[in-house]
Write a structure and sequence with these properties.
The protein is mainly alpha-helical. It has 19 helices and seven strands. The chain folds into two domains: 3-165, Fumarase C, Chain B, domain 1, CATH 1.10.275.10; 171-452, Up-down Bundle (Fumarase C, Chain A, domain 2). The protein has helices at residues 13-21, 30-37, 50-55, 68-82, 91-103, 121-125, 141-147, 159-164, 168-201, 218-231, 235-238, 250-253, 255-278, 294-322, 345-360, 368-399, 407-417, 429-441, 443-452; strands at 3-6, 25-28, 62-65, 106-107, 110-112, 130-132, 138-140. It has a three-stranded antiparallel sheet. A two-stranded parallel sheet has the order 1-2. Keywords: Lyase.
Length: 456
């Protein structure tokens, strides 16, 4: 099992993912322990009876439970801030937070919490409130500590303030951003795969995806290269039926431009997140480098807007399959019997409903916490939209038989057929959910990259 070492420097994306999702162990580096030993014990100093008072506000939060992986990420970021030695906490307090993370103990935090996703940290350290253990079982925090062989910590006068001061809301929002960027980097490659399958099944052309020196946007170049790689060797596109006019519909021809713009937005958000991780110190009276959530909040909102655009073009490609006038010879709705069956028609309606919701999730003035929740919903929505496009394109490729798809797209069709086969009207929801899981887990992308090598 991987161990993440928290020192006085910046955490990486991989560190955050390892702790939030992979159950990595957490330890303090020697530099952090030295900084904590030599730290300022007067920072945020409060009278001795104040820790108990400061622990009370987090226990007044309300609403649904925040996602444990976001809480764990916020805990890790707070530990990184404490490890600078500028907050006045003792080494044993920082070690205890690392021990909670290593033991898989996650404080229960409510969505409506003025102190953000680290609001439950001080109570959990002292055995108050609720927590989930490594198996996800909900229990009193004191019981979770005892099960892990830990005892409640007696916070010193200044330590409760150190756990709450600064920008705890930023810790949760930044965790959202790091995980969203991580997920979208994989998801956008899968979106390229889905688009390639749609182009192939609609008898499009890959000639529009050649590198363009007149518009050297890196995201556009990467998306175009992926489409070319996935379509390489396609018997469908090489067939007489596949030799359609060079100018396909915009949703096919302009795929690299739209996908590429979304990719470039993701990389901008990644840069913002990396800078925020590198400025992870606390707010102290003698330090003018106050952290602020504005850059992260704007990146979250911008990313949600880009995700909505990606979902919209995917839905438009899917819609072409259902219209016999625009699908180049496919039956209406991709149904066995268009006069009696609805085929994939209602699945595309579901796509359209998701896209409409995603467009609503892009406010003109995003706030960090609200934008973080909306982006999380947006990434989930895009995952589902991509799953429906994959299912629909796979069905269309089956209907193109005996024309042979490319080796890469054929690998996706085989994977999907392990979870359901085409036929007369049937209950599609389980197949959609299975495909959502294959997209989210990276299985679809893995199947393609086993043929093409790593996509851009």
């Amino acid at each position: 099992m991987r161990t993440v070492t928290v020192g006085t420097g910046a955490l990486s994306f991989a560190d955050v993912v390892a702790v939030t999702r992979d159950g990595a162990q957490v330890r303090l580096g020697d530099d952090a322990l030295t900084a904590l030993d030599n730290g300022d014990r007067t920072a945020g100093h409060t009278p001795h009876d104040r820790p108990a008072r400061l622990r009370t506000p987090p226990l007044t939060a309300t609403g649904p439970e925040a996602d444990p992986e976001i809480v764990r990420g916020a805990m890790l970021l707070r530990l990184s801030a404490l490890a600078t030695g500028r907050t006045g906490v003792r080494p044993e307090t920082a070690r205890r937070i690392a021990a909670l993370l290593s033991a898989g103990i996650t404080p229960v935090v409510r969505e409506h919490d003025a102190l953000g996703c680290t609001g439950g940290l001080a109570p959990a350290l002292t055995g108050e409130g609720e927590a989930r253990d490594a198996s996800g079982v909900l229990m009193p925090a004191a019981d979770a500590l005892a099960a892990a062989g830990l005892t409640p910590l007696d916070l010193r006068a200044h330590e409760a303030a150190a756990l709450l001061d600064g920008t705890p809301l930023l810790d949760g929002a930044l965790t959202h951003l790091v995980l969203a960027v991580t997920d979208l980097r994989r998801l956008l490659k899968t979106l390229d795969v889905a688009a390639a399958m749609s182009v192939e099944a609609l008898l499009g052309t890959d000639r529009a995806y050649a590198p363009d020196s007149l518009a050297p946007h890196p995201g556009r170049a990467a998306a175009g290269a992926n489409l070319v790689a996935v379509l390489e060797g396609s018997g469908v596109l090489a067939s007489p039926q596949g030799r359609t006019p060079a100018r396909d519909a915009h949703s096919l021809r302009r795929t690299p431009q739209v996908h590429g713009a979304v990719r470039d937005t993701v990389e901008h958000a990644a840069d913002v997140a990396a800078r925020a991780l590198a400025t992870g110190g606390p707010d102290t009276p003698d330090d003018p480098r106050d952290r602020h959530a504005e850059p992260v909040g704007h990146a979250l909102g911008l990313l949600a807007l880009a995700v909505a655009d990606a979902a919209a073009i995917s839905e438009r490609r899917t819609a072409r399959f259902l219209d016999a006038a625009r699908s180049n010879g496919l039956p209406a709705f991709l149904a066995d019997d268009p006069t009696a069956d609805s085929g994939h028609m209602v699945a595309q309606y579901t796509q359209a409903a998701i896209v409409a919701e995603l467009k609503r999730l892009t406010p003109p003035a995003p706030t960090g916490r609200g934008a973080a929740r909306e982006l999380r919903r947006a990434v989930d929505g895009l995952t589902r939209v991509v799953a429906v496009e994959l299912l629909t394109a796979a069905r269309a490729l089956d209907l193109r038989a005996p024309l042979a798809p490319s080796a890469a797209t054929a690998s996706v069709v085989r994977l999907l057929r392990e979870h359901g086969r085409p036929g007369p009207d049937r209950y599609l929801a389980p197949e959609i959910e299975d495909t959502v899981g294959l997209v989210a887990s990276g299985d679809v992308l893995d199947a393609v990259e086993a043929v093409t090598g790593a996509l851009a």
